[in-house]
């Protein structure tokens, strides 16, 4: 294994709602190596999107990252921080902890080194600004950041009367330079939009869903990011368009060598795009490893269950093997202190009433599973009686 | 009230293979209305042709899959068959009787039910789920044999149904908000089956569910089908699900059915280029998936307000038939067609190009130079010399503002059978017509 570019340690994100505390992400740890595609797969409500938002520091109130570190490799910055303060906890070797950096540093890093693609392209663009301008704006932010890393401010940042007056009197064009506009057209061309010069002058509603998703990829590329976080980038699209977008993403990834964290619920997309994968369930990584590890020798019964419930296109005869029960609630008070999957697990044992740690599993280095079965063989004699978890 | 008595005496298996539902030339157009301005300008209405002439049979006891991308009209077909929408044209027969001739649809409604995609919005949030399941029994005045106390028997029937779909009678008094999506979909199934129908339209029944729960619901639907001898119309965009549950499959594109085939055959030997592309696009859950080369369809689905002439798929088809005597590669053919489509839609920014040229050079650029620049922008493949000249000539006409002449000039040489003739047949593609 090489040196990771991104190292997530014990990331914990909670939402403090009126109904109670929601443990959306709980103690998630993983490494991502430069240039690889790391997939996070899970069902709705498993915390995969919140994990993505936590990576790029976009978790909004009532949510908060309550614990953990997001280490990002940035040797120059790490050295500088250590110079300022030799005992700093924000730097470790060549890595810096995005959560411990001060706001300006973090903003400079987040705005230029990280980019994010969202699921729904239609709601991710401002409907009243042309697509070209919105992409050019991202380019402009990056230009200004390169010029002065400590003063990254986007046009939309800040508030107050003065801000209101300046933005209403000074047209938006002033923020975006002509070079940035040209670069935006180039970017639209890169992501495969035909006739980019004229499409750049159009508004989001004039684009189809697939085209707009391409535009969003162009916007993400604008800052030439090191890490691209793609949250369900093709879920809102039809399969033929999904195939186009996945091909485009794959080509760009190969060309720019971007590190990508890809979040999806679709195991087919995982199979097509990813080098290594983490499987999320109830806010935790229940298993992580290489694609081969997960598909050929899944250690966690949940991973097995996911594979068993996916209808295969090339074999219609197989009866589906569903997982019994339902996706659990993430409300803190409703989360028992045991393996969260035990109540749906076909191989639940009395041991599972103690929360399992991550164990090393067979296969590649880095294959881990949060299940006792990764350590011991299944012992039917130890199985929990049927109906153990049934409530009244 | 006229009402057919449920045919308990006929052993259902006898009639397998007979058409239960026959759909002929069904059309459903949505006219958003002609505004005053349109009328003043002399423009007619331009309806959305959601369903534009589909015909198929659904045989007793089988599951017919209707698959297609969003906006292809598959859900509208389901709703029009059930008369939740009235068709613009065409006919639907149920059990041999044309629905249009039935004055009273009550008997039909009892026998044909629907399960909707979104379980959260298809159950009344203020009604206990037991009530929701009981409602069809009350509306149709079940039990029809008049024996026993109706209230008691309905109560028993509801209990039977909820247990059959895998929930417990203790949950009958709860409200939809207390259930998960998968459980609600089970309740929807119980409601659809309450009157023991023959035919159920399943409109994307598992699209809102997670994959582990989807598998539970699919298995349940398959079990119920054999247990109650149901006939399904299964509408979905998910080819994996379609393959798993369907006997025969109809593929829809832009309001039309492009191919109908038995499930096995459609997946092993797809004929229509659209079916082929659709199957190819689906990422497989397989380790070899990364090595598989996908050549995705170009472009987007055209607007159903103004579908392409001839074959509707021709604007994206990777196998358009070139006109007789013209021997060019598919890629070139595609590029020329794209230019022609843009000329037809007048979607070429001539002025922008002219201005850009004027900035870099002295004086007003001539039509020839504008055409050359347009050519560079619009055509990104290497065309053989005669074709290159022809397209340039066309663009020159465009630069001169003579759109119609440009369109005509290119049409003369490049018109394909795919744009003049509408294909017909089981596989509606000119490649498969004799």
In short:
The complex is a heterodimer of chains A (392) and B (434). Chain A has 13 helices and 13 strands.
| Overall pLDDT level of chain B | 88
Mean pLDDT of chain A: 87
pLDDT < 50 stretches of chain A: none
Give the tally of β-strands of chain A: 13
SSE ordering of chain A: EEEHEHEEHEHHHHHHEHEHEEHHEE
Largest sheet of chain B: 6 strands, mixed
Count interface residues per chain for the largest interface: A-B, 52 and 50 residues
Which bin fits the share of residues in helices of chain A?
25-40%
Q: Encode the helix/strand succession of chain B as letters.
A: EHEEHEEHEHHHEHEHEEHHHHHHHH
Strand line-up of the largest beta sheet of chain B: 6-7-8-3-9-10
Give the percentage of residues in beta strands of chain B.
5-15%
Ranges of chain B with pLDDT <50 over ≥5 residues? Answer: 1-12
């Amino acid at each position: 294994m090489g040196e990771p570019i991104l190292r997530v340690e014990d990331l914990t994100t909670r939402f403090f709602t009126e109904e109670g505390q929601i443990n959306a992400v709980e103690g998630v740890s993983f490494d991502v190596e430069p240039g690889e595609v790391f997939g996070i797969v899970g069902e709705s409500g498993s915390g995969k999107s919140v994990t993505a938002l936590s990576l790029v520091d976009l978790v909004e109130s009532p949510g908060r990252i309550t614990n953990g570190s997001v280490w990002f490799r940035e040797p120059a910055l790490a050295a500088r921080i250590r110079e300022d303060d030799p005992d700093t906890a924000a730097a470790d070797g060549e890595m810096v902890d995005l959560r411990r950096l001060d706001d300006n540093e973090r903003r400079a890093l987040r705005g230029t080194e990280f980019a994010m693609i969202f699921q729904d392209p239609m709601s991710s663009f401002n409907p009243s600004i042309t697509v070209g301008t919105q992409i050019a704006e991202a380019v402009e932010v990056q230009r200004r950041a390169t010029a002065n890393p400590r003063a990254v401010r986007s046009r939309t940042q800040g508030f107050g009367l003065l801000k209101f007056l300046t933005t209403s009197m000074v047209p938006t064009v002033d923020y975006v330079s002509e070079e940035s506009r040209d670069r935006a057209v180039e970017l639209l061309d890169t992501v495969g939009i035909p006739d980019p010069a004229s499409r750049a002058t159009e508004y989001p509603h004039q684009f189809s869903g697939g085209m707009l998703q391409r535009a969003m990829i162009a916007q993400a590329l604008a800052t030439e990011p090191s890490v691209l976080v793609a949250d369900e980038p093709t879920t809102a699209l039809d399969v033929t368009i999904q195939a186009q977008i996945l091909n485009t993403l794959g080509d760009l990834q190969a060309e720019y060598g971007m590190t990508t964290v890809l979040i999806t619920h679709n195991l087919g997309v995982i199979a097509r795009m990813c080098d290594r994968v983490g499987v999320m369930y109830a806010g935790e990584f229940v298993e992580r490893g290489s694609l081969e590890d997960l598909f050929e020798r899944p250690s966690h019964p949940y991973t097995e269950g996911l594979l068993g419930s996916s209808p295969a296109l090339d074999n219609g005869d197989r009866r589906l093997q569903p997982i019994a029960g339902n996706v659990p609630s993430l409300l803190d008070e409703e989360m028992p202190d045991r393996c969260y999957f035990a109540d749906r697990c076909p191989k639940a044992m009395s041991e599972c009433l103690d929360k399992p740690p991550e164990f090393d599993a067979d296969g590649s280095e880095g294959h881990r599973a949060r299940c006792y079965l990764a350590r011991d063989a299944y012992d039917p004699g130890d199985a929990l009686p049927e109906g153990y978890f049934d409530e009244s | 009230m006229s009402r057919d008595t449920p045919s308990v005496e006929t052993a259902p298996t006898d009639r397998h293979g007979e058409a239960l539902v026959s759909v002929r030339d069904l059309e459903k157009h949505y006219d958003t209305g002609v505004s005053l301005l349109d009328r003043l300008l002399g423009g007619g209405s331009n309806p959305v042709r959601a369903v534009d002439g589909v015909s198929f049979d659904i045989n007793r006891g089988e599951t017919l899959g209707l698959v297609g991308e969003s906006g292809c009209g598959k859900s509208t077909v389901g709703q029009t068959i059930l008369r939740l929408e009235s068709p613009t044209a065409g006919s639907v027969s149920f059990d041999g009787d044309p629905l249009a001739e039935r004055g009273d649809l009550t008997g039909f409604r009892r026998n044909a039910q629907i399960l909707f995609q979104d379980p959260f919005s298809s159950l009344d949030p203020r009604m206990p789920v037991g009530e929701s399941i009981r409602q069809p029994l009350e509306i149709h005045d079940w039990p029809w044999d008049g024996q026993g106390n109706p209230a008691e028997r309905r109560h028993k029937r509801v209990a039977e149904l909820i247990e059959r779909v895998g929930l417990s009678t203790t949950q009958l008094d709860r409200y939809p908000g207390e259930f998960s999506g998968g459980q609600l979909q089970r309740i929807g199934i119980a409601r659809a089956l309450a009157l023991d129908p023959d035919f159920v339209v399943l409109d994307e029944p598992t699209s809102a569910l997670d994959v582990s729960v989807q598998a539970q619901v699919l298995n349940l639907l398959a079990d119920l089908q054999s247990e109650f001898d149901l006939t399904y119309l299964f509408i979905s965009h998910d080819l994996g699900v379609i393959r798993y549950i369907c006997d025969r499959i109809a593929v829809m594109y832009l309001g039309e059915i492009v191919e109908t085939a038995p499930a096995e055959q459609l997946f092993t030997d797809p004929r229509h280029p659209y079916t082929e592309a659709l199957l190819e696009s689906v990422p497989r859950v397989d380790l070899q998936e990364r090595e598989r080369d996908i050549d995705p369809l170009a472009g987007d689905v055209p607007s159903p307000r103004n579908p392409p002439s001839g074959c509707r798929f021709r604007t994206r088809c990777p196998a358009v038939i070139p006109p007789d005597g013209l021997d060019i590669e598919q890629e070139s053919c595609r590029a020329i067609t794209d230019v022609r489509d843009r000329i037809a839609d007048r979607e070429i920014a001539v002025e922008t190009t002219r201005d850009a040229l004027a900035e870099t050079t002295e004086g007003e650029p001539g039509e020839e130079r504008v055409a050359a620049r347009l050519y560079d922008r619009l055509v990104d493949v290497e065309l053989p010399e005669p074709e290159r000249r022809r397209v340039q000539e066309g663009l020159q006409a465009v630069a001169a503002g003579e759109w119609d002449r440009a369109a005509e000039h290119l049409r003369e040489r490049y018109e394909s059978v795919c744009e003049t003739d509408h294909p017909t047949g089981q596989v509606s593609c000119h490649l498969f017509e004799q």
